[in-house]
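Reopening this one. Same input as before:
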Amino acid sequence: MSILSFEYLGLVGISSLVLWIFHHVSVRKYAVALCNIAFLYLLRADLTGYLYAAGLTAVTWLFGFLLQKKKSLLLLIPGVLLPIGGLCWFKYAGYFINVPVIMPLGLSFYTFKAVSYIADVYKGKAADRDPVLVFDYICFFPAFSAGPIHRSEPFFQQLEETFVFDYRDQKNGCIQAGLGLFEKLVLADALSNYVSLFMNRELTGWYTLIGVLLYAFQIYVDFDAYSNTAIGAARMMGIHLERNFHTPYLANSVREFWRRWHMSLSRWLRDYIYIPLGGSRKGLFRKWINTIIVFLLSGLWHGSTIMFVIWGLGHGLVSVLEDMLRQLTGADKPVSRILYIPEMILNFLIVSFLWIFFRSASIEEAYMVIRSMLQCFSVPLSSFSCELVGITVTECWWILCMIVMIIVTDIMRYFTDMIELIANCPFIVRWAVYICVMVIAMIFGVYGPGYDPKDFIYVTF
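Same output, byte for byte:
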């Protein structure tokens, strides 16, 4: 079941209504559990996926319960290794047993939530909860398939409060979810089609370069679309999840980029990998090694092929090089406005280049893309032809409009909360925005007969 389906949208609406009706603390956790079960049923996943989610929930609750009774590494280690072991089995076992292993949908996201809950109980940052609440947390359906990786204690605290109907929450959640669907239908899926055309192996030079840059925007709006839809749906159910993206391509360094890109994952890696390894407390060399390890694990988390390892290590090496330069030139000196924009553009180009390895299925494919892209230096831009790509001049202008739309929106989001901005507009202005968005979606959205909704890219992780 896709979140673009009427089934999912209906489930969100019914779940919100159910939580209004069964709002008291004593029954609210059961209402959420019922909604999660309905989602798992509608997901129509493989039986293995259901059994694994149920088993992981039981293991998470059991070790949380035991660690609350006795803080012991002898309990923490197996409590953490069991979920991680399950994750590794589904991701990597196929390479060793030569038999395809079907990975449950959203496995990485709810596995990381399980690990963080167990670790937080051990550290005293969270108290153990009963099995129903643990199930609500692990399988909370808006964030089940692709995050955000929300933390347990804030989630439990919200569930343990009596739900009070808040019209503003409903309105803002609906706006955010709607904008997420707009990003997916109008921007992400359209860009996906154009990326495929520009990245055609028969085209080289500027065509490949444009394809690489378009993919950078595609993957951003695709994941941001899911995050916004998930956060908006959760908000309609009275649960506030943390923001997952904050204008990442406006960052002027890889370090800053990861503070804004997939923020819940970045914070998870910081809190449960980087800091336990020693963080920056053990000297510069140890800090750089820890940084490399974290980015390597980030790559392995995203996928099991060597391409994801290269992608993760690439970000780690660039981050270390940036830190070396900061040490030489003066750590964290304020950057002048004149230098910020060139640094931002350079950082975007570096991140876009590394996306090549993320997208490619093999080293050979990545090499071909890079070699093809570099040919743009020997071919004038004036040789570009829309017809060779298989698109019209009008479509070229629409691609440019989409990119401008993404950039302008991000600049606005950097300075203000767009959801609050829209929500605070006068009634007439607000509905004018709604109608405008719906008209654009109807004219330019990718949908209708023959349309096969593309899965969100991060759902496969």
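So the earlier flakiness isn't reproducible anymore. For the record, The two ends are 16 Å apart (CA to CA).
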